[in-house]
Structures are given as structure tokens and as C-alpha cells.
């Protein structure tokens, strides 16, 4: 079988094709022929050596794959050959709280990931695909969609609440779509007026251009009549947290998801303490939540937003496209049937 792996050192130039022996499932395992992969910012950081510089090489990157079960091992009962499935991000996190042990079962580091013609996975680490989705659409769900869903449901978002999402990448666009599914009003920030118009076409309540309105947190406060938003999907990190604290209502939640603008910053904690703000780290979510999200997606016939699809052997170009930040929704890879 063929795969793409980071081989002799970190860097996009070291993401190269590799041939490996054909695989067979062991007890409790399934073999999945990969049909599509979606990219996350974590995948880029992994390839560059910035996510875990101590990650042993070679490593097959990417956690999010969709494909067909082509073989099952002894004792497999959850899925059958021919079934369409996606990966789960943390293969061992089925339900409950995250633990250090569960966090060590993530695909694309430390475990080999989805950027391969076939994958051998635990039967517990795959989830059936909603029937109405294509391979590419399904591949967007394991991380970006579930991260947004975990943030929304963890904050108890309900009809009439207000959610603010930063930018128009994968998690943020799912935050918009799933937030609307739950009945929330969603504010979107972006530096692109074109992207803000596209977001409004998906149901965004308001769009804020953060270049012309750098105090976008104050603007969000104004839009909500001074109340503040109930939830911020914080994908920026250090560079945007201060504005998120201005936007959030007393008792609201800031879901810490990304670090696009840095990992450390000086910050006054007074607003956190005096307003009883909850800052919650979100590391995707567990399989039980994923299955609940898929039921909601199926009921609403929701379709993920895909920015661009590359042939899988052009993964480097796809990662560079994502790195440039021009995408709206998810960047994906497609493998031949």
C-alpha cells in the first residue's frame, strides 16, 4: 500500500510518498480503504514539527479520513464490510472525560493517520457516515465539526442564544452551521467582506470586519444590546483572547480551540473573575458526542462547506493552501476509488 509520511525530518518538503506492506486486520480491527481526507491546522503543525517536536518519524499525518470497510478481524460486530465510515480523532476516547491515556490514541500523531490508501483501525475507532454525505463531506466531520459541536453543546447553547465565531475556517464555519441548527444567532468575524457575505448566506446574523473594526469584541457587545454573546469559538488564541473577553456576557463561555495568533499573552484576569467567565479548552470530543452530532446532521440534512479538493498526492499543495488562510470551510484530499 502507499501512504504519505513525514520521513527524515519535519517540514513540508519531507512529506513524501512511501510504500508499506499490505495490512490485515487483527482481532477487533477493521481495514478501511480511504476515499477522502480533510485537513486541520493540527496536521500542518505536525508536519512542520511544531505540534510535537518529539514525535518519532516517520509519521503518517492527518486524523480525518472517510472510507469503506474492506475487511474485518475476529470479533468485529460494530461495522461490516462495505460500510461507509469515518475515523475518530482519539481512537480510545469513546465517552466520558478526557484522560492522558485517551489523549495518546489520536490519529496523525502519535498514531499513524489517514493519509494512506488503507488504514487499520480499531472497530471502536470508526463511525458510520450519514447517508446523504459524499466521501469528501464526511471526511470533514471527525475534528472540525465535532470540535464545534462539543463547544456548542458544552456551553449549553439553545435557541435564541448568541455565538461568535472567529474567521471562516473549518471549525468556525461548522460553528456557524451547527449553531444555526441549534437555533442560535451567530456573529462571524473576518477580514474579507466577500467571506462575510458568504457567511450571511449560510445564516450568519451579523458579520464584523476585524481590520476596519479592530475592537470587534466591543462591536459584538453593541450588537447584543450590551448583554454580550453566550459563547465565543476562540480559534485565534493569544492575539484574540482580549477581544473575546470584551464580547462575552457574564457567565458566558470562551471555548479555547486554536492558536492561530499565538500561544501566550499578557492578560488581565479581572474580567474573567468579576464576570464569572468560563474559559474551556476543547480537544475535539469523544465518539458518543460524534454519534449524537451525526444524528443531528442527518435530521437537518446539513452539508459541510468544502473550500477545495486536491488529489491526495498533492497534500503538500493542499497544506500550503490552508496555511495561506484564504479558504472558506474545509480543505480536503480525494483518493481514487
Describe the structure.
The protein is an alpha/beta fold. It has 2 domains: 2-140 and 304-334, Quinone Oxidoreductase, Chain A, domain 1, CATH 3.90.180.10; 145-281, Rossmann fold (3-Layer(aba) Sandwich), CATH 3.40.50. The chain contains 11 helices and 15 strands. The longest helix is centred in the middle third of the chain and has 14 residues, at 141-154. It starts with a strand and ends with a strand. The mean pLDDT is 96.
Mean pLDDT comes to 96
**Cα-atom Rg, whole angstroms?**
20 Å
Please identify the top-level CATH class of the largest domain: Alpha Beta
The profile of the biggest β sheet is: 7 strands, mixed
CATH topology of the largest domain: Quinone Oxidoreductase, Chain A, domain 1
Uncertain stretches: none
Structural class of the secondary elements? Answer: alpha/beta
First-to-last CA distance: 14 Å
Question: Helix content range of the residues, please?
Answer: 25-40%
Strand content: 25-35%
The SSE order reads EEEHEEHEEHHEHEHEHEHEHEHEHE
By DSSP (H or I, 4+ residues per run), the number of helices equals 11
The outline comes out as globular
- Name the CATH superfamily assignment of the largest domain: Medium-chain alcohol dehydrogenases, catalytic domain
- Overall structural domain count: 2
Task: Please specify the SSE layout and strand pairing.
Layout: E1 2-6, E2 15-19, E3 29-38, H1 41-48, E4 64-72, E5 84-87, H2 100-103, E6 118-122, E7 126-128, H3 135-139, H4 141-154, E8 162-166, H5 170-181, E9 185-190, H6 193-201, E10 206-209, H7 216-223, E11 229-234, H8 241-247, E12 248-256, H9 270-274, E13 278-281, H10 287-300, E14 306-311, H11 315-324, E15 330-334
Parallel strand pairs: 8-9, 8-11, 9-10, 11-12, 12-13, 14-15
Antiparallel strand pairs: 1-2, 3-4, 3-6, 3-15, 4-5, 5-7
